[in-house]
Amino acid sequence: xxKKIGFLYFMKTENKKSSKLSDVFGxxxxxxxxxxxxGYELRKDYLINNYKxxxxxxxxxxxxxxxxxxxxxxxxxxxKLYFETVGVKRFTDSEKVECIGKPxxxxxxxxxxxxxxxxxxxxxxxxxxxxxxxxx
Length: 136
Prior knowledge:
The chain is α+β, with helices and mostly antiparallel strands and 136 residues long.
């Protein structure tokens, strides 16, 4: 009987060690993900701010089907059309319709035109997306 108790005790301590080890690896993985996302966003913002070009764009659609509300806008660089989205606060029913086709100002990176920041002009106060280094 004492051998059984000794084995169970051994298994419990092994599970605790394994659990602590997986907690450490899980924490390290989470930190790497956070630093990776922040690094990606900083690189994007750096390229936009240091190689900034400006162009006019147009609001294409308002999407409120998900929890996060967003506007989709498009802009053209050297003949190529780019579509991006930006998080916004809830629009009124009339704003949802009126915003389509409204002009916006887009700052983009001349090195990588897909990277952009948008100024929504009359809807700027509804913008929720925050950049680490804003280009406006």
